[in-house]
Specification:
Order of helices and strands: HHHHH
Shape: elongated
CATH architecture: Alpha Horseshoe
Structural class: mainly alpha
Distance between the termini: 38 Å
CATH class: Mainly Alpha
CATH superfamily: Tetratricopeptide repeat domain
Length: about 140
């Protein structure tokens, strides 16, 4: 399926009916994992969804949240196990946080008047900055 939802008129185009069905199914899977806080599974489903639907604010917002939670979870796991952060683990965590910011920014582009999103983006940037500082630049 080569078609993608690229603008709001694509939602009402009859030729996109199969695509819209596929999007709906994919989004329901992603949202189900998201609500259960199964961040890895939700992230994967949202990544698949946004390949089909390029303009869904909620999907980008929720994908950003998944990435943020995964980064925090990985840091928490290292603390619990009292392991030193390996370079590969630090890279993985950095990628989660970078993806968080990228997806929240995309959500902000899709909903530019959403002041709460702008606030949340700034809050998450501050938390990530603190985590990076706390872990001496490893993240």
């Amino acid at each position: 399926m080569d078609r993608k939802i690229k603008n709001w008129t694509d939602y009402v185009n009859p030729r996109n009916l199969a695509l819209l069905r596929a999007c709906n199914i994919q989004y329901k899977h992603a949202l189900s994992y998201y609500k259960k806080q199964k961040w890895k599974e939700a992230r994967k489903e949202y990544q698949n969804f946004i390949k089909m639907n390029l303009i869904d604010y909620d999907a980008f917002y929720q994908l950003g949240t998944c990435c943020f939670e995964l980064g925090k979870m990985e840091i928490g796991n290292l603390k619990k196990q009292k392991h030193k952060m390996s370079p590969s683990k630090a890279k993985e965590i950095r990628e989660y946080f970078d993806d968080c910011i990228k997806n929240l920014k995309k959500a902000g582009e899709l909903e530019p008047k959403n002041l709460l999103l702008k606030e949340e983006l700034e809050d998450k940037k501050k938390v990530i900055k603190k985590l990076k500082k706390k872990h001496r630049g490893a993240v």
